[in-house]
């Protein structure tokens, strides 16, 4: 972590009455928690936009972590231009209160990989029909006792998992941590136990795993019936592996993540997951050269016992540029309007879509039973649970979340 002179900024904070400065360690990572160096990086203090307060300050780009001196009760924004992928540009930014965080903030780029990938093949100790092999970055379906064509990250500490069926019995296996290459692995599999999850009739539902080695494993998708749904419960799970369940009724969704060591997901355990009708509304306006201004922002309906966490925003010009932003509950406060001028940060002019282009806008309101200080410091989950919605809070951390989803398409 490289220090650099902050004396001018600290002098400005002191002049504005800043006190009780708390260093925040910010790290930029990919979907498996490996460090990335951005193409541009910036941060600023105070409510946005920068035209009404402190300016955006460029951060060094030849590194993946930064120490930011932020007064205890201050509001701030941080922004990164992630490495480009496939000719498309990716931007992530957050607007937070220092009091909502601990010592660490981990920011995840949505697509870029820090490590090269390769193609893996493998043998399975029991023929499966069908079967699926999983790595941190890919899946490969197969039938029989072997698989091929699985995309996986290279390096030490990788893992390959297999899940499938043999004679009506579910089987699961994992290699444990291995180095890749070599690109051929052997996966011992064994029959699983079961647990059950009940979701309301008609609700789209899912159960899966995220292994501690960042390998997501899909177990079952179904439409809820109000009766228990059997879910495979492998015996070769350990603390740090997560079960992930979700259920959605239209645009109202719930996510439940449980550590595999939790008794509530032990073999033969029974769980219930539902979500009340949630609401999210608002309007946007924009000029050709600036990010949208949001008005009449409102959300509600979350279950008792869950605290409102904030909003996630997605603005995409498909195949060209994507902006992901998180606005915390503390940063927005009681306001119903919002604009953040990320396009004014050094190196971020390209975040604004091309005039006349078709763009996708997604917004998500979140409530949960864990604080942002825990979620935003935890390692990411490689696969976004709800594409274009849940990136910021998809973390390797046990949590119960509810999410209200909103989406639209329009011409910029």
Overall 3D form: globular
Count every beta strand, where a strand is a DSSP E run of 2 or more residues.
28
Number of helices: 3
The biggest sheet amounts to: 12 strands, mixed
List segments where confidence is low: pLDDT < 50 over at least 5 consecutive residues. Answer: 1-18
Please state the CA-atom Rg, rounded to the nearest Å.
Answer: 22 Å
The helix content is: under 10%
Q: Beta-strand level of the residues, as a percent range?
A: over 45%
| Spatial sequence of strands, sheet with the most strands | 3-2-5-6-26-25-27-28-21-20-17-18
CA-to-CA gap between the ends?
39 Å
Number of domains: 3
Please provide a written account of the structure.
By secondary structure, the chain is mainly β. It folds into 3 domains: 1-113 and 284-374, no CATH class; 117-191, Immunoglobulin-like, CATH 2.60.40; 193-272, Immunoglobulin-like. 4% of the residues lie in helices and 52% in strands. It is built from 3 helices and 28 strands. A 12-stranded mixed sheet has the order 3-2-5-6-26-25-27-28-21-20-17-18. Strands 8, 9, 11, 12, 14 and 15 form a 6-stranded mixed sheet that branches. Strand 20 and strand 21 (252-259) form a beta hairpin. The radius of gyration is 22 Å and the shape is globular.
